[in-house]
Amino acid sequence: MPFGEREDELWGVLKPIFRPRVSGDPNIKYAKHLLNQSGPFRPVPYANPRREDSRAVLGRVVRKSPEVLVKVTGRKKGAEHLGAHLSYIGRNGEIAIETRDGELISDKSEVQQIAQEWSDALYWRQRATVSGVAMVFSMPEGTNPDTVRQAVRAAADRMIGDNHDYVMALHTDTPRPHVHLTVQAEGLDGQRFDPRREDLFNFREAFAEELRTRGVECEATPRWSRGQGRAGTSMALAQMREKIRRGVSRQPTEADLRQAREALQVASGKAQPPVFVTRAKERWDSTRQEYERAADRLDNSKDASDRELAKDLRAFLKDRPSVETVPDRVLKDAQSRLKQMRERGEHPPDRPPRSR
């Protein structure tokens, strides 16, 4: 049963749509972009993965297939900074670093030579310039590490091509197998490797596609399409929280203290929830409606697999009556603490959260 125009609507809630941002006079910017082949008219540096059937994507979402993770972890400026990063991902020679040509390097001097070569072309610039862009590709615990490495290499070859050099290193020292991919910023044609939000999503899709061709069930969808609030946590903050959970540190982060103060104000009726929380709930309500319409259409299909997908989709929605964000979880804790304070005869603090 073809969805027709409805398929595009369903696809819109499964995958993000990226639009160029325009500010000021749009006519002037439009003319400049058209003349300079920039902005929305710039040549696309990374090949877009092919668009699949929305049913296949929807099926993986409702089956809760693992989601791939791709993020930029840093931009390294100069040979010294880049060399320190390459030493880190190679664990100072304990882990072999794999080049774009498939060569394995563990010698420290060869690693530093790469950092120097990537930075030499930039020495004439007055300001410190990015020599390499560090990325990480990760999968949940239980995924075969070598399969992850193969998928990252295939995705890198496909998305980056021959214009930029790169090195990669597989890490298995955490439950989640992950690959550190570091890309030379300056391309052979002078173009800079500077992946943005849309580019990172394309990397996610390419990574997920390569994993599926190797028998790993996974998907690359935005959090809101799965009924989850935005993560909004930097790697540094995540590492600090992990130290607290392990008992290595007992000092709470300033971000957590501020969030707790704000939640207590909301729980006591002296403040409103953050705007992004309200927007996340509104977006999930709209997404739920589109999913429900899709379930109705699938129910009317003559294909038994479509009707089974409709059943799975409704079970998926039943488990997610509303999206829960991080502030929501903190608010629950604040409401519990507020109740305990009142039972003890104490009054909630009147002081509003500190602003920075």
UniProtKB/TrEMBL annotation:
Residues 282-305, 317-356 are annotated as: Disordered. Coiled coil: none annotated. This is Relaxase. It comes from Sphingobium chungbukense. It holds the Pfam family Relaxase. It comes from the Bacteria. Residues 109-211 form the MobA/VirD2-like nuclease domain. InterPro entries: Endonuclease_MobA/VirD2.
